[in-house]
Amino acid sequence: MSRFSEAKEMYQEMGVNVDDAVDRLSKVKISMHCWQGDDVIGFDSKELTGGIATTGNYPGKATNSQQLMADIDKALSLIPGKHKINLHASYAITEDKVERDKLEPKHFQAWVDFAKERGLGLDFNPTLFSHAKAADNLTLSSPDESTRRFWIDHCKATRKIAAYFGKNLGCTALNNVWIPDGYKDIPADRLGPRKRLKDALDEIFQEKYDKKYLADSVESKVFGIGVESYTVGSHEFYMNYAAKNNLLCLLDTGHFHPTEVVSDKISSMLLFEDQLALHVSRPVRWDSDHVVLFDEELKEIAKEIVRCDALDRVFIGLDFFDASINRISAWVVGMRNMEKALLYALLMPHKVLKKMQDEKNFTELMATMEELKTLPIGDIWDHYCEQQGVPQGKAWFKEVQKYETDVLRKR
To answer: Is the pLDDT of residue 251 over 90?
Structure first.
């Protein structure tokens, strides 16, 4: 018997349909963030601001759209499945400089063509950082009316662009609003900035688009560099705003207190909302955006999505940037780990485990869950990779090394 066949039998003995799990995984689209490829610089700025920082100077960073697209192509060739690319507005491809409040779908046509040729979807984000009008970390909540107007118009433009993505690619585009607004020290007024943010968002989301093409989300953060004492767009603010206005609340795994875990929030959010959005990262002590590993929290996140039968209700996107290692390797490791975690979750007999819990059979529940941890998921994963036409095991890394030698180190 093959290793896959043996592994399949072991899972079947636990009441798991392996073929069904693999089939369900093949339909999941994860949004791979373009900004890992160039350290979040984008094409319209040379300086990274807004409490965002990358560390390291590994050679081969993409410096233009052709290089970034080539690197994305290479990464996707090593990742099983058909997915999405997540863009920031700062990645517009234009002949002449276009201000962010004047961006149009035509400025992203090259990305639409790129995605269509490869059967990919696109997600989108307004870029409210790395810009002169965001220099003081106040954008949509700024007391300066002209600053607020600029960013309101920018966010309205990105919604139109994202809807264009969804309509032309036949895949719903998520447009996610995150702002760096806040104060370094204790503020004298917490309510005022939040009222200005609310009013700005009300105008941004006033125009209605077909939800078949566009999904709108808002993303919170507990604190950031330079805004340690007060963040305008807190979790409580956005969770209430999203619920009241029928928007998606996006949970970033690095945007909460270090003792909080997003996995525990997923079931509560899905109980009251039709859909949920995630940015999956790996915080180390704070929102440090490390490459996603196959760790316990990632597995718990995946298990909650699967347990809630929400694979078609959760927008899963990755959000990390590491300039200290090969950037393509970072993409591949993160994407494959997210898929691997979902496979791990799909290969669990959730109904059986739930029955044990409901019947208060906690002894057998613990024993069974521990046994599941050491079942040969690696053999199922290798089968899935072979089925999807990508390298098994660590074989993909040799291709990354060759690409680094042939392409990245010659830039």
So the answer is: yes
Of 44, 123, 216, 252, catalytic: 252
Among 37, 101, 74, which Cα is nearest to 325's? 37
Residue where the block lists tokens 């609310």: 198
- Of residues 366, 378, 383, the one with CA closest to residue 294: 378
pLDDT score of 401:
97
CB count in 10 Å sphere of residue 310: 17
Determine which one of 279, 299, 303, 383 is catalytic: 279
Of 123, 181, 319, 322, catalytic: 319
| Residue 210 bears catalytic tag | no
Q: Is the pTM of this model over 0.90?
A: yes
Active-site annotation holds for 153 = no
Q: What's the pLDDT at 287? A: 87
CA distance 164 to 186: 41
Q: Cα separations (Å) of 69 from 34, 78, 323?
A: 9, 15, 18
Which one from 178, 331, 381, 396 is the annotated catalytic residue?
Answer: 178
Annotated catalytic residue 252: yes
319 is catalytic: yes
Distance of alpha carbon 400 from alpha carbon 330, whole angstroms: 10
Q: Which of 44, 123, 289, 404 is catalytic?
A: 289
> For residue 5, is pLDDT > 70?
yes
1 confidence band (pLDDT: 50, 70, 90): low
Looking at residue 46, its pLDDT comes to: 79
CA 72 to chain centre: 15
Annotated active-site residue 257? The verdict is no
One of 123, 181, 219, 304 is an active-site residue; which one?
A: 219
